[in-house]
Amino acid sequence: MSTKLSPIWDIIIIGGGAAGFFAAIRTAEENPTLRVLILEKASQTLGKVLVSGGGRCNVTHACFEPAKLITYYPRGGNELRGAFSRFQPKDTVEWFEERGVKLKVESDGRMFPVTDDSNTVANCLRDAAKQARVRVELGASVLGVEKTPQGGFRLEVQKEAQKVFIQTKKLMFATGGDRKSQNLIQSLGHNIAPQVPSLFTFNIKDKRIHDLAGVAVEDVTVKMDGLTARGPLLITHWGMSGPAVLRLSAWGARILFDKNFASLLTVNWLGDYKLDAALEVLQRNKDWHENARKKIAAHSAFSQIPIRLWKQLVYFIGDKNWADVSKAEIQKLAQELTAGEYKIQGKGQFKDEFVTCGGVSLKEVDFKTMQSRIVDGLYFGGEVLDIDGITGGFNFQAAWTTGWLAGSAMSG
Ligand SMILES: Cc1cc2nc3c(=O)[nH]c(=O)nc-3n(C[C@H](O)[C@H](O)[C@H](O)COP(=O)(O)OP(=O)(O)OC[C@H]3O[C@@H](n4cnc5c(N)ncnc54)[C@H](O)[C@@H]3O)c2cc1C
């Protein structure tokens, strides 16, 4: 530990990620008299910001209605309702713009810095922290925390081979998914919802999608265990991915974990088509005299289904002309198109945005201030909480919002 590091602080934030930085900057800007310290165990801060969004950092999502925004959070939506009325994506956009980082919206609503470079975001946060005189200590791992009789906290910190003890009046955990840090939080009396993966792809071995890696369908509805998600679907070497699958994995994270990532997936390749509507289109194709001598596999009857996928979905009918296809086969094909069943046999990883669900139990946190309802002076922000969003910038938004709220409260 640097000899210059004071043993006494007003505010210590454990974790130099998105939530920790936002909280530290907010609190120091609001009250410049406070001595604010970030302890980060890695050799650099904002590691996840840098790798996020494929190096572009999907900062937030262009959804400016709190009521709508919360529907993107499988866990934490209700609790975030009020929080988003205080700090939401519009505020995030302004916050960064005021500090010289302009964000742009992509067609699917994701927002990135116009530079398409996550360094722009990380540098902005580091500069703002420096400007607000936040002290950042790198390579400093918090190993132990206890309440002091005076109402503050005493921390055991390891830096290189040295262990030191420092004290603070207020303490914030912004430690992301770090399991050891969760033990520290538990030791202070909090409950932690068990961590399980969220946002992953499905491993599916099935001849209907075999060798189709790279084929995408724009509007697909997927169902599993009573849950439904809709959006683009991408066939991969191992199974299925794309927004529809990732969303379903997030909503079904706990169910799938409990079932060891094995379940039955129902796929409607035609978005919201009902069986009857699909049957009608197929019957029209069969009745159309020009089609009579055409092979059913030669052309997709639905423009939204790529020909390579169509060929494999109609495989069971054989090499027949439309005129020779039976009613039962038409019926079976309509079923295949609108409610094909696939066995999920495991999970893959979605490398662009890996998050876990689980964390500090939300009942134990006051979402107006992000202060613990159990321990006075203790605050939380970001992924350490039992909050997670679907892919698209929602996870960072939760970190900005909860960090900002904690920072505001700690400054008072
Ligand atoms: C590859 C990848 C890409 C992603 N892309 C996106 C994206 O584009 N958009 C989006 O919204 N979300 C994205 N996410 C999710 C997003 O990165 C997280 O939700 C977000 O970083 C959470 O921020 P945080 O500050 O809560 O935690 P983190 O960013 O995890 O920061 C926690 C910090 O605490 C430190 N720490 C933990 N314990 C201790 C301790 N005991 N002592 C000292 N330091 C400690 C850690 O080293 C870490 O730096 C991505 C995630 C990954 C992994």
What would you say this structure looks like, in words?
It is a single chain. The chain has 412 residues and is of the alpha+beta class. It folds into two domains: 8-197 and 354-410, 3-Layer(bba) Sandwich (FAD/NAD(P)-binding domain), CATH 3.50.50; 200-349, no CATH class. 33% of the residues lie in helices and 26% in strands. The chain is built from 13 helices and 21 strands. It has helices at 18-30, 47-55, 66-69, 77-86, 89-98, 118-131, 179-187, 243-251, 253-258, 275-287, 307-313, 327-339, 394-410, and strands at residues 8-14, 36-40, 60-61, 103-105, 110-113, 135-138, 140-147, 153-159, 162-173, 192-198, 202-203, 216-224, 227-235, 239-241, 263-268, 340-344, 346-347, 355-360, 365-366, 371-372, 378-380. The strands form five sheets. Strands 1, 2, 6, 7, 8, 9 and 21 form a seven-stranded mixed sheet that branches. Helix 1 runs parallel beside helix 13. The longest helix is centred in the C-terminal third of the chain and has 17 residues, at 394-410. The chain is elongated. It starts with 7 loop residues before the first strand and ends with a helix. The model has no long low-confidence stretch (mean pLDDT 95). Bound molecules: flavin-adenine dinucleotide. Flavin-adenine dinucleotide (FAD) is lined by residues 14-20, 39-42, 47-48, 51-53, 57-58, 141-142, 174-176, 178, 181, 352-355, 382-384, 393-396, 399. Flavin-adenine dinucleotide is lined by residues 14-20, 39-42, 47-48, 51-53, 57-58, 141-142, 174-176, 178, 181, 352-355, 382-384, 393-396, 399.
